[in-house]
């Protein structure tokens, strides 16, 4: 019993230490004040890599504990910016949803300014900055890949989409991309939504969106593997990896069988998968 009590107290102390690492900051941008949160583990040193997390549409979940825990293990800092409000008063990132007509169309400029501000303020690496996001934040990953691909060292989207208007543009540079997506996602549909039945705008199938980036990278190999879901061993996680490009930019797709619209941390170790992927590209 004494051992159990001591162990529980240690876990509570560790949890409090993790929570206390969250700090709120403000940044002036184009005449407005933007808010962001920082997770900086005590073990992080000057010149450490940075992950920027873009939240989902209308989401108040600006803090991913599993992402923070993985960042701490691998020596990353994490920045959580808050999106702008659309015509419905919901925060998000401009990817041309119908409700986003009032928003700044050039999110890449905001994220360039944010990265510069955060890296300077916290003495982090300007060369090793990565972008990840969920849903609308995942959509943003693809948006920036098509508009300013070299803004981030690599990208990791969870339940993200490539809209048809973006897909019609030409990819200009190879990028490293990770996508984690459920094939039973009714919000960001695996098979795409050419008819715009969901109301977000027409978008292409997820496998095609990922394969298009792999093709632009001039990947020459494709390998597949699978593992069981943590939540249900009868459901599989199918992993497709595109490699062999001269640039060394790999593309990886995690297909969660039966997966709904989520961060998928109940099925896989999402935070660890993302940070481990990013770690491959740190210089």
How is this fold's topology laid out?
Blueprint: H1 2-20, E1 22-29, E2 32-39, E3 50-54, H2 65-74, E4 77-81, E5 84-85, E6 91-92, H3 107-122, E7 129-134, H4 136-147, E8 155-158, H5 164-167, E9 177-182, H6 206-216, E10 221-228, E11 236-243, E12 251-256, H7 270-279
Parallel strand pairs: 3-4, 3-7, 7-8, 8-9, 9-12
Antiparallel strand pairs: 1-2, 2-4, 5-6, 10-11, 11-12
Helix pairs in contact: 2-7
Question: Could you give a quick summary of the protein structure above?
Answer:
Helix content is 29%, strand content 24%. It is an alpha/beta fold and 283 residues long.
Structure keywords:
283 residues, alpha/beta, Rossmann fold, ten-stranded mixed sheet, two-stranded antiparallel ribbon, 7 helices, 24% strand, disordered N terminus
Fold and architecture overview:
The chain is an alpha/beta fold and 283 residues long. The chain has one domain (25-279): Alpha/Beta hydrolase fold, catalytic domain (Rossmann fold, 3-Layer(aba) Sandwich). The protein is built from seven helices and twelve strands. It has helices at residues 2-20, 65-74, 107-122, 136-147, 164-167, 206-216, 270-279, and strands at 22-29, 32-39, 50-54, 77-81, 84-85, 91-92, 129-134, 155-158, 177-182, 221-228, 236-243, 251-256. The strands form two sheets. A ten-stranded mixed beta sheet has the order 1-2-4-3-7-8-9-12-11-10, with helices on both faces. It has a two-stranded antiparallel ribbon with strand order 5-6. The radius of gyration is 19 Å and the shape is globular.
């Amino acid at each position: 019993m004494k051992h159990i009590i001591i162990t529980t107290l240690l876990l509570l102390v560790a949890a409090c230490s993790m929570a206390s690492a969250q700090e709120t900051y403000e940044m002036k941008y184009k005449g407005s004040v933007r808010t962001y949160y920082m997770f900086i583990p005590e073990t992080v040193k000057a010149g450490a890599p940075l992950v920027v997390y873009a939240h989902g549409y209308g989401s108040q979940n600006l803090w991913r504990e599993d992402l923070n825990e993985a960042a701490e293990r691998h020596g990353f800092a994490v920045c959580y910016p808050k999106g702008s409000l659309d015509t419905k008063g919901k925060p998000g990132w401009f990817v041309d949803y119908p409700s986003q007509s009032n928003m700044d169309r050039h999110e890449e400029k905001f994220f360039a300014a944010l990265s510069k501000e955060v890296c300077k303020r916290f003495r982090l690496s300007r060369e090793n900055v990565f972008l990840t996001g969920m849903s609308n934040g995942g959509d943003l990953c693809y948006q920036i890949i098509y508009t300013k691909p070299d803004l981030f060292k690599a990208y990791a989207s969870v339940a993200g989409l490539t809209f048809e208007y973006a897909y019609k543009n030409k990819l200009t540079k190879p990028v490293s991309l990770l996508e984690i997506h459920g094939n039973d996602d009714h919000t960001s549909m695996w098979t795409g939504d050419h008819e715009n039945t969901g109301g977000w705008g027409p978008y292409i199938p997820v496998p095609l969106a990922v394969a298009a980036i792999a093709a632009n990278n001039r990947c020459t190999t494709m390998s597949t593997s699978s593992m069981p879901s943590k939540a249900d061993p009868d459901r599989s996680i199918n992993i497709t990896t595109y490699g062999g490009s001269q640039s060394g930019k790999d593309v990886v797709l995690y297909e969660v069988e039966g997966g709904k619209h989520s961060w998928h941390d109940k099925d896989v170790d999402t935070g660890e998968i993302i940070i481990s992927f990013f770690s491959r590209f740190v210089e």
